[in-house]
Amino acid sequence: MNTHRRTPPPLPPPPDDPQAAAADRLVDQLLGRALGDATSSPGLAGRILEALAAEMMTDDDEADFADADPHTPTETPDMNRSRHLSRTSRTPMRDRRKAQRNPDGASAWWLISATAATLAVAATIALAVWSQGNIDTPPNPTPDNPPSVHPAGDGDGAPKPVEPMFPEPERTSGAKLSWMIPPVFSADGKFVAVCRQSDAMLVIAPVSAFLEAGDGLAALPGAQKWHFNDARGPMLPGRQQADPQPHAMFCKAGLLSATPEDGLVFINTATRAITPLLDGTNQILSVSPDGMKVLVLHGSTRFVLHLAANGSVDKKVDCTTLEVPVETPVWSSNSNELFGTIANPPNVDDRSGQLRYRIFRQDVATGKYTWVMDGADIVAACAGDDKTLRIKPIRVTAVYGSGDTARLQVVAQERNWYDDPAHQGMSGTHTYGRAPRGSNPGSAEPGPPPPSWEFLVEGGKATLLQKRHLARYIDEILVLPSHDLTRFAFFQIAQFGGAGNARDPKVWVGSIDATGKKTESELKAEAFPAEWHNLHFQPIDHSDDGKLLMFVTGTVTLDRPGWDGPQGAMQAMRAGYTISQMWSDSTGSHVATPVFGLFRVDGATGSVTRVCGYGEKVPELDGKVTTVAGAAVNGAQWVPGSGTLFTRVVAGGGMFGRNGRESLLLINAADWRTR
Amino acid sequence: MPVAAMTTARETDFASIVHGYQSNIWWYLRLLGADPSLADDLTQETFLAAWKAGMQRNEPATFGTYLRRAARSVFIRASQQRRRRPQAMPDVDLDAADAAWTALHGDDPDAGEAAIDQLRECVDQLAPQAKRAIELQYHEGRPGEQTADELGISHGHLRVIIHRARQLLRRCMEAHR
Fold first, then answer.
1. Which residues 125-164 of A are in CB contact (within 8 Å) with B?
2. For A6-36, what is each residue's pLDDT tens digit?
3. Which has the minimum average pLDDT: A76-80, A144-148, A209-213, B120-124?
4. Who contacts A79 (Cβ-Cβ below 8 Å, separation ≥6)?
5. Edge-to-edge strand order for the sheet containing A632-639?
């Protein structure tokens, strides 16, 4: 053994060049791969494909809840409606039980979840097998080689030609882009700003470019793009991390020349768009009605930027309050004040669990704030002498006027039992002090939300407009203010049937005056298409005369005799359909696909009018429903300046689909009041 | 029109994309400092994000770069979350790692195999002692002390040899690309 050892030369210092250091690490990695046994994670591709299949199925799964069996400790006319409807809506649950006893029965809803799970597994297996090519696999479909629904053929070995189960869907207008965050539109509806998280890109482009765009970002004429370092995660606490906001907003200032010191970055003079620092340390909360003031959040600090006509920042006012603000404050009509709620004020004895919230008014020129109303007064207005009521933070939802004479719409909601710090980690629908409504023994249907109260606050006095106490979570009550908060449009819906197949909606519309007096009427039974089930309503616009523009979504059932379950579902998804439910029974196979439409609800005449919508060439649906290839819609935004509704359409398909992409859908409904 | 007629050349089967690129992305994330378990998770997140964003509709030539950038974003987000925990990830210059990856590895599905083949050729060009040190260290997985004993040198000397050999290999690979 050679024991002679030379004195080694000194170890060279670590390279100063970071790239050289990184390259050395990469060489080290490659040496391990080339000479050693270093390998990437075995089976990783399969796990990724499983995750993708599960992700694809997630959007389509919808729980099939049973119907409600509410009981009401305190009765109001509104509550009686829901109660009556719920008690007479048990058919689906009975059908399910019958189907379980008799699998050949007329209804087999229980098959839905099993079929969905089977489909997920089948999709994963099919993907893995196809991609690895370990067995004789059919070639990828081409125009000359269409896929067969029944590859086994008719017995003579030749594949049996099968007509496609679903026709080719109609294309919608709009860019086929995938945006992680809802787009923001300028007030005139001419420009749109979108922030895409997947590659940290902010894009501002003319709306027309989006509507004409083809595939991908490259086909956006006139678009400007910026990459940013998304650092919002560590900066924003709590829910704001998981609920990111758009990075850009539009304002009315002219040529913007804000600097990074102001917390803003100049973006685009033509579109008048602004954005917080692209490193994500600031977040724009709102722009004032006059478009010349911007409320910005930096960590836990809030400040208001006063913009000059030339776009520069005139003044930066610290508007941080000593206590914790609740929600984003609302601007006064003249843009000089903010109205909001503060929670947990210091020195409040909360041993009773009776958290108090105070409404404040803040002068954005000085940052000084004064109290408008004590939350205890609101609680008293909600519950009277009931000392057991505990409420969530009060929210200011609308403001008209300014100063002492301002009118505020305020919402207070009872707390859930599990909102209490002592019950953290628990769940349920139980509320303090009163029995819950909508308890559903043996049912998976979630209970309704806790009751809430809509108030008009004026001159330090709160007037109760409407108590919102639902029997079932599929019911809804809306109170929408006129521009000056003197009248409020009222909308209430209750539906029959199980929560997974709600049907036959009952709808009441009307108005409430500033004293809380309500006038209402019930809509005709055929107000909404009878074949639409599981209706959900999103108010889009409303006018002072009590007319509402509603964005309504639901599902429609298609009968598919001979449909072979998972494989048929895969073909449907390949064709661009979104499937919300699927099941089989003795009459054949069925699939439920989402639909949507715009409806005008007239509180004065008690009528409902279909405003506009998109159709597609599906024979069963032609003229009856509005859908884009059975697409699911994901939110809707209304741009008053352009009278246009934008929504994102999520066509089905995912990795299987040729149309599994999101489109921006434009519906021009500027004349919805008269159409 | 049959369903199959809607097939277009640019809409590649995403499963084949996963199989083609998952190894590259996993090793790239390891270069950024992710441990094997985290690299597994982040690779999965990367492909999920790419699929949601509709990457398969892009030109196939851009897949590799797109996925690497997506992986970088996913890694940054994960590191930001971990910085608030005790097990923070090592600080790595991401731009430098990106540049090194582009220079020595590349984003093609077969780039890893090509780089490894090239590296083997470069190893053959090393001086005998350095080549033997590399083989003992990486191929046979000997601990440093054993390798030093076998070569008849001190452990410190071995480190210098290995370090310089890596530099030579890097230059060799850069020269061949």
1. 127-128, 130-132, 140-143, 145-147, 164
2. 444 444 444 567 778 888 888 888 888 877 6
3. A144-148
4. A72, A437, A469, A471
5. A632-639, A644-650, A662-668
Predicted confidence band at A463 (pLDDT cuts at 50, 70, 90)?
Answer: very high
Residues in CB range of A286: below 8 A, 6 or more apart: A249, A294, A295, A328, A329, A331
B166-to-A319, A390, B127 alpha-carbon distances in Å: 57, 68, 12
The alpha carbon dihedral of B74, B76, B77, B78 has a sign of: positive
* b (16+ CB within 10 A) / e for B18-55: bbbbbbbbbbbbbbbbbeeebbbebbbbbbbbbbbbbb
Q: How many residues does chain B have?
A: 177
Is A19 close to B51, i.e. CB distance below 8 A?
no
Q: What Cα–Cα distance (Å) separates residue A334 from each residue in A213, A317, A409?
A: 39, 17, 17
A491 φ, ψ (degrees, to nearest 5): -145, 130
Inspect the interface and report whether the beta carbons of A140 and B13 lie closer than 8 Å.
Answer: yes
> For residues A20 and A494, what is the distance between their CA atoms, to the nearest angstrom?
68
Task: Tell me the residue length of chain A.
Answer: 675
What residues does A110 pair with on adjacent strands? none
pLDDT recorded at residue B20 = 81
What is the distance between the alpha carbons of residues A484 and A488, in angstroms, rounded to a whole number?
10
Q: Of the candidates A668, A672, A534, A544, which has an alpha carbon nearest to the alpha carbon of residue A600? A: A672
What distance in Å separates the CA atoms of residue A245 and residue A232, rounded to the nearest whole number? Answer: 10
Q: Do B7 and A141 touch (CB under 8 A)?
A: yes
- The residue behind tokens 């836990």 is A300
Q: Does the model's ipTM exceed the 0.85 cut?
A: no
The 10s digit of each residue's pLDDT in A653-675 is: 332 333 334 445 556 666 777 76
